[in-house]
Amino acid sequence: MTMYIASAPCCWGVEDVNNPHLPPWERVLSEAAQAGYRGIELGPYGYLPLDVDRVGTALDGHGLSVVAGTIFDDLVDPANLANLLRQTHDLCDLLTRLPRLPTAPGQHFAAPYLVLIDHVHAERSLVAGHPDRAPRLSPERWRQTMAHIEAIATLARDRYGVRVVIHPHAGGYIEFEDEIERLVADISAEVAGLCLDTGHLYYSKMDPVTWIRRHAGRIDYLHFKDIDSQVYAEVMAEPVDFFAACARGVMCPIGRGVLDYDAIYALLRELDYQGYITVEQERDPRNAAGSLQDVTASLTFLQGKGFAGCDRHSD
């Protein structure tokens, strides 16, 4: 069993490229490497430059390779489809021109992946984590969203050979049990896989072990988070925007929260999961001074459980 641990810019608070408080992308790469990571995600579209020579040189200088790119955008609005397809072209072009990470025996699809996330909608953000309160899409809007996902995934696969993985996310319209089940019924495994996230599952009232087991055949990639139980109880007891909850510290370093990583590791061994797992810890970028310490602690904890860091590989 080979499970490689990577990092992501959201650990430094990088979610919205228009946020004026984001740390420089060069700092994120530098601190990820200092923490001991050898794999990293690109972060949201537009954070790292799309210039393959510039990014490739920076990655190489820090001993890093890219495990995934991300489209974190509105997957619902039909008027946004052209923008989504443009991002798909740009990201897949970059991903396929960078040095590749190794593929473990038994890994479903080769990295790098394109992670597809419906962004946080205002009407869902204050009820993130509350399946009984959150509005759902109408049947027509749901069908449109599934059509958008299929168009993106088909383009990435057929034009670039990149596997799209869909990430259920708190505050988006693919978050809760019923929405994940509808998603896997409506999007075939030939079109796209899943990237389940332990923290988002727990935040949205799902047990990560149960849901990883349930959809093991569809999972091509995983995200690991942990949740501070006290902060989580506080934000669930009052209307709190999802990203405001993150700024309050609801996400914490792996091993310091409520999630049972002994059970998660045992399950992944049982399932013979092969491939990549990325550590994430959403936060306010104004608190990024603590990112290096936190991502180092997360990696140290996971390595102690038997997970490995990414090994570099170039073709």
Automatic annotation (TrEMBL):
This protein's record includes keyword NADP: no
InterPro entries xref list: IolE/XylAMocC-like (IPR050312), Xyl_isomerase-like_sf (IPR036237), Xyl_isomerase-like_TIM-brl (IPR013022)
Residue span(s) of domain Xylose isomerase-like TIM barrel: 30-287
Pfam families with a match to the protein in the record: AP_endonuc_2 (PF01261)
GO molecular function, one term: endonuclease activity
Keyword terms, alphabetized: Endonuclease, Hydrolase, Nuclease
UniProt-listed PANTHER family: HYDROXYPYRUVATE ISOMERASE, INOSOSE DEHYDRATASE
Protein name: AP endonuclease
